[in-house]
Structures are given as C-alpha cells and as structure tokens.
Amino acid sequence: MVERVKTGIPGMDEILYGGIPKRNVVLLSGGPGTGKSIFSYQYLWNGLRFNEPGVFVALEEHPVQVRINMAQFGWDVRPYEQKGMFAIVDAFTGGIGEAAKREKYVVRDPEDVGLLIDVLKQAIRDVGAQRVVVDSVSTLYLAKPVLARRTVMLLKRVLSGLGTTSILVSQVSVTERGFGGPGVEHAADGIIRLDLDEVNGELIRSLVVWKMRGTKHSMRRHLFEITDRGIVVYPDRIVRIGRVVRIE
Prior knowledge:
The protein is an alpha/beta fold. It has a single domain, classed as Rossmann fold (3-Layer(aba) Sandwich). It is about 25% helix and about 30% strand. It contains seven helices and 13 strands. It has an eleven-stranded mixed sheet with strand order 6-5-4-7-8-3-9-10-11-12-13, with helices on both faces. Strands 1-2 form a two-stranded antiparallel sheet. The longest helix is centred in the middle third of the chain and has 15 residues, at about 115-125. The chain is globular and about 50 Å long. The two termini are about 30 Å apart.
C-alpha cells in the first residue's frame, strides 16, 4: 500500500487516486494568474486541519502579505503559529523592516541557497512539519537557469530526507509549456501543471498531473475554478482544445 498525503482540495485527491505519495516532492508549475499560490496555501491549510504541521517558504512575498492572502480565504494561520504547528520562513525581506524583525525564521541573504536550507531545516524540526511549500523555487535560479535541476535536487534531498511531502512552486511565462527550468521535470517526483487558456472567448483554468511517482493518476486535463473558499477541481469535466467536455 502506498502511504498518501491528502491535499484536501476538492476533486484533486480523486484524480490522484487518493493523494500525493508520502515524501514526494511535487513541482507545481504554471504561468501568472493560474492559482499556484492559492493551491499551495490550501494544501498547507488542509494539512493543519488534518493535524499535520507545515512550513511555508516565502521567496516572492512578504510573510505579512502571505498571512493576509491566506486569511482572505478564511485560512488564518496565526493561531497555528502560536501553537507551534506552522511556520513561515522569510526568504524575501532579508530581515529588512520593522515587520521582518518580528519574524522567527529569517534568511538574511535570500540568494544564499545553503543559508536558506539551514533555516528551512530548523523550521521543519521546530514545528515537526509534514508539509512544506516553497514559493517560488524559480526565484532561486532565475538568474542562472542552468542551476535549476541542481537546486531542485538539493531541496528534494532535504525535504524528502526530513520526511515531508512538499510542493515547489515553479514559475513559467504565459506562452511557455515547460516546467520552469532545464531538467527540473526529471528531478521532481511529481509535476502538476496549472494553465489559464482562452476557450471560446473565455479564460478557463485547467490542470493536468504530468507525472506522479508511486501512483497512477488521471491522464486528462481537468477544469478547475478559484472560489472564495479556494480551489475546486472537477474530475468529471475535461478541457479539450476549444471546449470544455463533461465526462459521462
């Protein structure tokens, strides 16, 4: 039996045949506006609801803004931070600013991957994290794309080695159909690709599980929506070129 971690995202675990295999490191890839951060927040929040502590690594937004963004969906993580079940690693501010001085886990040089790993390890151990999100991993190798695979492999060894089931958010351009860096698709255990496409004059969100080590998964492109309570995936509705089709 494969031990799985449920995302808790409506419809998502169904197309993953029960959830993400434990200890997998999943690349969540997509362009701007596709819902990558929301997916990640929801994954961590559902973990807290399942009594599974988590860590969020903020590389592109201030930790204060991350808390605000999550709270907009009704996901207030502050009580869990106070209980020692959740932590945000500030890899954005470099410790600059009054708000940053109140953060517990700060990476003083966000470009130093080794320092980031050290702070991340400490946060994972302190809260006993079972789920981790890094948003976005692309920031670590944006200036040097050739380091993409090496960076993902380094994170994979640490995150899997510490027993976490993790999501690495990966940025791509609007027109790019790749996964955010050379070779990253081979380094990750799984890839979930989010897209925003024009279908019949309307912007439609869809996702496809490109690969997931240790389990079978849907091979279809599924419609999903972002609601005021988070993402909802529709296992019975697939997106084809030019139209949305309901599976009978």
